[in-house]
Design a protein that fits this description.
By secondary structure, this protein is mainly alpha-helical. The protein has two domains: 7-47; 63-100, no CATH class. Helices cover 44% and strands 10% of the residues. The protein contains four helices and two strands. Strands 1-2 form a two-stranded antiparallel sheet. The longest helix is centred in the last third of the chain and has 16 residues, at 85-100. The radius of gyration is 15 Å and the shape is globular. The termini are far apart.
């Protein structure tokens, strides 16, 4: 079976796994790929999540790493995403709002 996967698909698969916490099996079913192909895509360090466009809106201007846990020293793929300034402010606002909400 021929499995054609574009660069955009690579990035989407990696964001589904690292950001949205999809399982490898569910990603394989979603894209119609083998489990081995998904593992190769996720293990490929050279093809990490794109650092030239915002993960949320796709804007290709001025994107910087955003640390989900606010710890600049934690460079794990699950903690770092690339965001434009507008989305960065939006996420920070949601994080602060969540902290202020009573349980």
């Amino acid at each position: 079976m021929l499995e054609i996967v574009t660069t955009r698909d690579h990035n989407d698969i990696q964001s589904l796994y690292y950001i949205h916490r999809f399982t490898r099996a569910s990603i394989a079913r979603l894209y119609g790929l083998s489990h081995q192909r998904i593992l190769r895509i996720l293990d490929n360090k050279a093809m990490s999540i794109a650092d030239t466009e915002c993960l949320l809106c796709g804007l290709e201007e001025i994107v910087d790493p955003f640390y989900i846990d606010n710890n600049d020293n934690n460079n794990s793929p699950q903690n770092v995403i690339m965001l434009c300034e507008a989305d960065r402010r939006r996420i920070r606002h949601l994080q602060m709002r969540r902290l202020r909400l009573p349980l």
